[in-house]
Amino acid sequence: MRRLIGFAVPVAVILLWQLVKSIGLLPYDNIPAPSDIWSSTVDLASSGELLTNTAHTLEACLGGWALGSVLGLLLGLLLGLVRPAWTYGMASVEVLRALPAISFVPIVVILLAQTVEMEIVIAAWVAIWPVAISTIDGVRGVNPVHQDLARSLGLSPVAKVVKFALPTALPKIVVALRLSLSAALVLAIVAEIVGDPEGIGYALVEQQQSLRPAAMFSYILLTGVLGIVLNFILVWTLRFVPGARQAARGADDAA
Amino acid sequence: MTVEATAPATETADAFSCSKLFVEYRTRNKVLRVLEDVGFSCAQGEFLSILGPSGTGKTTLLRILAGLLSPGEGSSVRFRGKEITGPPAGVGIVFQNYAASLLQWRTVERNVALGLEGRTSKAERDERVREALELVGLADRGKDYPWQLSGGMQQRVQIARSLVMRPEVLLMDEPFGALDAMTKAQLQDELLKVAEVTGATVVFVTHDIDEAVYLSDRVLVLAGRPATVGRELRIDLPRPRDQVATKELPAYLAARHRVYEALRAESEAGAE
């Protein structure tokens, strides 16, 4: 019930927006009325353009996110568990993750041209760091009693990672996966605005250049919906991963 | 003609023996000696308590016996006659903090199975887990998660996790320290039963005098700074022991008295 009440606010804002626009109080012609946005969305959806662009952006975002997450996990395990790797590698990681991912877009466009691979690489780059950092933190955070226990049971290094380090790190990794998913979506769209002439990002530019603000708002709304849906699917999927369920719920409460 | 057991033969039958054991912790600007010239042995099948005030290094001593911590250069610590260089096989450990020790993401069964995974067939593992849980009275809680159990039950899971490995020795670090009096008494009796059924040697660290006297065959009093074994007291009380009957025996009260005096004498000596 509380959640439903929460929806009253955006509904009221939309109604107010529509009202202000209809009675001509809003001086900007390029801000469309909600009704215009709705009809343009219906048009874009029925022409199939919306779906094609969404599919393209999703491919880039999810591809990059998956790639980045796997690489981040491996990097995190390496740095978190192998002492020399941590000693020699951590400074580089701190430098690389401090560089804004967006600043890499132009160089990746030169390297890989205007392709979906270019988008994937950029989305992957931004997805790597949260997952890597959380994995490092997590696997290094095995509590001292567990460390004693693992040694006293004579567990192999691999067993220690699988039975202690990874489960300990899992809640942090889950949070990181959610962060990197939203970041990957943002970067995929940026890559489309700057480089690859396809997908939602390019559609935004295209509509801007043809002075169709209502269609631009359609795409803006679409990105918001995509973000929510992707997060929901991820959280829902995690319910089936043992140990991640509480982590997913905990992250929800924290958010 | 009878053949009498000679002294060396009984020596090798010791579960643990240490001599000249010392431990130092290096801090930034000084060396802190925690244990000094600790020497004792623990026979197989014996229930030995290590008693001492908080902060005397009881846990440190237990971690050395568990092979988790190396003592100072020149110390001798042996398990079944062999110098300890790492965690020896056949030694199980039960930690004080059960919540930190159990794997919260695993069910009770899978917590208990931890040390067997990949080492036995699944059928044998299941059977041994079931046996161990039965021994600690948790046969019906295998599918629960640790956080669904009371503190006493969680500590039983930890005991079962050690028992499943069929240890010759159980090292226990103030295992009942965090439990309420009734649960504590119940678990003490269960531990005595387990020790009897399995024949395991138990080295039990505690700061509770009554607990040490009630459970043990022998009590070592650890005291001083750095700590050493001040007194060694044999507790000759009949077994099986009983929370009411045993504690009413004059011999129990006498033993309790002796241990109390020893502890007081040692801490006074340490304070000087």
Write up this protein.
The complex is a heterodimer of chains A (255) and B (272). Chain A is mostly helical and 255 residues long. Chain A has helices at residues 2-22, 34-47, 49-81, 83-98, 105-112, 116-139, 144-152, 157-194, 199-209, 213-238, 244-254. Helices cover 83% and strands 0% of the residues of chain A. Residues 250-255 of chain A have low confidence and may be disordered. Chain A contains eleven helices and no strands. Chain B is of the alpha/beta class. In chain B, 38% of the residues lie in helices and 24% in strands. Chain B has helices spanning 7-12, 58-65, 98-101, 108-113, 122-135, 151-163, 181-198, 209-215, 245-248, 250-271; strands at residues 14-26, 31-43, 47-51, 76-79, 82-83, 91-94, 169-173, 201-206, 218-223, 228-234. In chain B, the strands form two sheets. In chain B, strands 6-7-8-3-9-10 form a six-stranded mixed β-sheet, with helices on both faces. A four-stranded antiparallel β-sheet of chain B has the order 2-1-4-5. In chain B, a hairpin with a 4-residue loop joins strand 9 and strand 10 (228-234). Residues 1-12 of chain B have low confidence and may be disordered. The A-B interface holds A 143, 145-146, 148-149, 151-155, 159, 163-164, 167, 170, 242-243 and B 63, 66-68, 86-87, 89, 91-93, 95, 97, 100-101, 103, 105, 114-115, 117-118, 165.
